[in-house]
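Example with several molecule types.
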Amino acid sequence: MAKVTFIGLGNMGGPMASNLLKAGHEVTVFDLSKPAVEALVAEGASTADSAKAATQGAECVITMLPAGKHVEAVYLGEDGLLAALPAGTLVIDSSTIAPETSRAVAEAAAAKDLAFIDAPVSGGVGGAKAGTLTFICGGEVATYNKARPVLEAMGKNIFHAGPHGAGQVAKICNNMMLAILMAGTSEALALGVKNGLDPAVLSEIMKQSSGGNWALNVYNPWPGVMEGVPASRDYQGGFLVNLMTKDLGLAFDNAVANQASIPMGSLARNLFQLHAGQGNGELDFSSILRLYKPD
Ligand code: NAD
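Resulting C-alpha cells for the full complex:
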C-alpha cells in the first residue's frame, strides 16, 4: 500500500480519494473547500494546511482539478509542487486539460526526475463512486506500470494511450463524442415526446435499437426516466455544463492546431455554450435537454 496525496476533492476527486482509502492506501488530502476536506477526514484521511504540506512524505501525488490553469498553478512555478517534491515521486494528473499543458508539466517534472503521467478519466461521478473509472494514460510505459496499482483502486479499465499528452488527446476525443451523443439523444427524445410518445417507452425502444448509446443507456437526460442520474434530481451534481464546455473548447483548439475538421463537435460546442450562457453552467451536462424542452 502506498502513501498517496490527493488534491482536488470535487464531484470526482472526493469519491476517488475515498476508494483509495477503502483499498488500504494511506491518504492525505487537500482542497480549497473545507467541507470537501472534512468529508474525507471523516473517512480516515489526513490533511494539511496547504497542497505542499499535504505532499510531505508522499510516494504518489494525484491531482483532480477543474482546468489547465489550476493544474499549472498547483504544479509549476517557484511555489509549485514540482519544485518541492523529492526525485522519484510518482505524480499523476487526472484532470481533463489541454495536451500541451500536460506536456509542459511532464517536461518540468522530468527536469526534476519526477515520474509524471497524464491520466484523465471517463465514467462520470457514478464510475468514480463505484471505483469503475476508465483511466486513459499518457507518458512513459515504466511510469504507467508504476501507477497501475494505485489507479486500480479507483478504476476498472486502465489504458496506455501513448506518450505524454496522449491521454488528454484520447479523453478530448471521447468527450466531444459524448457531447454530440447527449445533444442528439435529447433531440430524439424531445421529438418523440412532441409526437405524444412516453419518454420512458421511447428510451427503452432506442436502447434496444441502433440509436442506443451511453447517454441514453446509463445517463438518460429526460427527468424521471432513469433513477439515480442527474436528470432525476434537477440536474444537480454530475458533470457540469461549464466543464463540458471547457472540454469542447479543448477539442476545438486542438482541431484548429491540427487542421482537423470537427463540424459536429463545433455544433455541440455552440449548443453547450448557448446553454451555459443562459445560466445553466453549474448544472449537469445532461440538462442540455432543456434547450429542446424549455418548460
Ligand atoms: P469539481 O469542480 O467538482 O472539483 C474540482 C475541485 O478542485 C473542487 O473541489 C475545488 O475546490 C478544487 N480545487 C480547485 N483549485 C484547487 C487548488 N488550487 N488546490 C486544491 N483544490 C483545488 O470538478 P470535477 O467534476 O470533480 O472534475 C474534475 C476534473 O475531472 C475536471 O477536469 C473534469 O473535466 C474532469 N472530469 C469530470 C467528470 C465528471 O463527471 N464530473 C468526469 C470525467 C472527468
